[in-house]
Amino acid sequence: MKLPSLHPISWASDLLMDGLCNDKERGIFIIGMYALWMLRNQRRHGDNHKLVSAAVRWSLDTAIDLWNLNKPMNSVKERNNVQQWHAPPAGWFKCNTDGAFYPDQGQGPSGVALRNDSGLFAGGQARWYPQGLDALTLEALACRDGAVLARD
């Protein structure tokens, strides 16, 4: 969205006036100003690693979340069916994997469990990764670990 032409002294209060922009745009502008102000303060106090693009993304995500809070919630239908583990076809094995990520440490584990067509445990593995990028990477590593264990 384009920022309208604003007076250099009163621009912040001008954004709050009716007729200049709608409520959604006004919210995005205000949240964006807050994010940039926080980024400025962080840089001023020695924290230089955050990008302006990250502040802009945070602003848009926050504005959309706040805007959606005003919308009526759809009723959630209760499920009567309980999900269960199902055994694989005869002669097959099922491989379940999971990964976890600890962002404060930048590391995490993967876990693998193999079960036969009777549902009996046939093998498993847990592995710690001291270097991880994010949760998605650890999930992918867990899938790879599962494929390797199933192959072996």
Automatic annotation (TrEMBL):
<protein>
    <recommendedName>
        <fullName>RNase H type-1 domain-containing protein</fullName>
    </recommendedName>
</protein>
<dbReference type="InterPro" id="IPR052929">
    <property type="entry name" value="RNase_H-like_EbsB-rel"/>
</dbReference>
